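FAQ: What does the model actually see?

It sees only this:
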Amino acid sequence: MEQQRLEKLCGLMRERGIDQMVITSPANLYYLTGKFTQPMERLLALVVDRDGNAVYYANKIFLIDQSIGAEVVTFSDTDDGMAPLAKGVRETGTVAIDKNWTARFLLQLIERRPRVRYLHDCTILEELRMVKDLREIEALRQASRISDKVLAALHDRITDGMAERDVYRISQDLYTREGGTNGGAMVQFGKNSADPHSMSGPTVVQPGDSIVIDTGVNYRRYRSDMTRTVFFRGVPPELEKAYGIVLAANRAGVAAVRPGAPLHTVDDAARGLITEAGYGPRFIHRTGHSIGLDMHEPPDVSAGTPVVMQPGMVFSVEPGIYLPGLGGVRIEDLVLVTEDGCEVLNRLDRALRVLD
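And it is asked to produce this:
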């Protein structure tokens, strides 16, 4: 068990009147135990009480034993795994539940422990994971260095006749060579880049296309996420204009990062610049998201986020302009909030680039 993290968790549970917590998300389980398990459809849960007592309920297939630092209760596929878990949950009091726990398990627990007051929107672990420690920060730095290197290499490999999915496949190979896991890229050519979540497909690059590559990798379980936009053999004038605005918005958002300020001020800075330039309706998503063990973690970097920035928080700044029928532009960097400002984790050049 990660003892210091467990102690912080229990301290917050006591402050907020929570008696037990049922922890089920793979990222939260890894954060507390140091062991990553993807349960898929099977039951897997760590039950922690306010005094720090922890019991891990796991299918035998996961090979979890006492070395994890908690009592382990195992069961097989043919057993009623919920029976021992429900027995380990108190009959009354307040029990917090991971908000993404599948309903079929939660409803079984509620049926067997109906007198408990359940908290389905508890944010304690999200709050703890929001501020990274030195080990986490170094993993995030290294993941970003790998993505910088891979994306630079991808730009150099794009040539006539290449399809989006070809670039995607190359990215996977490059990430593996650099020591990352589950690396890849969302590659969008031309008109496809006007859709921020268009998936890499058979579209072949054409002269004048904007090329938006959103890419990331896992390094020691921590994620990177970055985006650069380049152009192929020429730049349409309207996209050249959009690029300059997005680059300025990225810089304005980064400049707004400082401890003590609310997160929405980062969105305000980036969005305000794009809006003043007349492209407000074409910036169609939040300015960013937090990142760590998961690619997208709370809190968001958006107009509705009052959370105050603290040293150790890591999130993206990714303004964009999307012009249907023509293409899109997005520039994304990860930033680490420091004691006196921020550190930008991505170093790949942001200047407008045309691939010849």
